[in-house]
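Deliverable D4.2, example record:
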Amino acid sequence: MPTWDDAAQWYVDGVRGAGRGFNDLAARVTLDLLGGPDGVAGRRVLDLGCGEGHVARRLARLGARVVAVEPTVALLDAARAAERAGPLGIDYRPGAAEDLGPAGPGLGDATLDAVCAVLVLHHVADLDTALGHVHRVLRPGGALVVVLPHPWTDHDGACWVPGPGGEQRAAGAYAREGYWSSGPAVGAAQPAPLTSVREIGWYHRTLGTWLTALARAGLVLDEVREPAGDDVPGADPRWAQVPRFLALRAVRA
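Output generated by the structure prediction step:
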């Protein structure tokens, strides 16, 4: 199945092009949960799994001191190229969510005011280790904001079905946790081009698993949002009354 290395240019083109609507929605919800300009100006914020850097750049323009970490080389290269073209003072570092210490990007204990993980943590295999690192690098009172595809409405087998008021979103294999992908099996011919992140796939976890993982890491849930897609230009109108994302804000006590 395709990997993020395979998908890097496709992703960059999408995030910077006409199809960026849902990425914009995820970024807007993230910035709002971080407190907007008043919540990030002058603060040291980590953009975890920054991709090509569009959230990191938004944070920096609001006055945040941004560190951004990304494991995919091609995406990190694209982020650094954007920084060279329009310097914002963003500190881009290679690394993965599962290791933010000396072997990775070298982030010290209690050195960050906030961490955001925008459409990232569902791609992480070892969620407990990643959240443990987030807890370690956050200062007491620091916040983590996570945005991910809503586990109830976007997972293996979730689909649109006829309903009394039009098509409705139906749960598929919601209770079956683990990695899934809508792409071809390993060894099969790859479609070209990619049309969805679902072809790469991610780790599906139930709502209960996500909330329990935060608590187990020592992070206190502060706010939950379930934004629909009704204000995304050009979006499928069926998402107007269906939660597109799950957004969680949790605080290190």
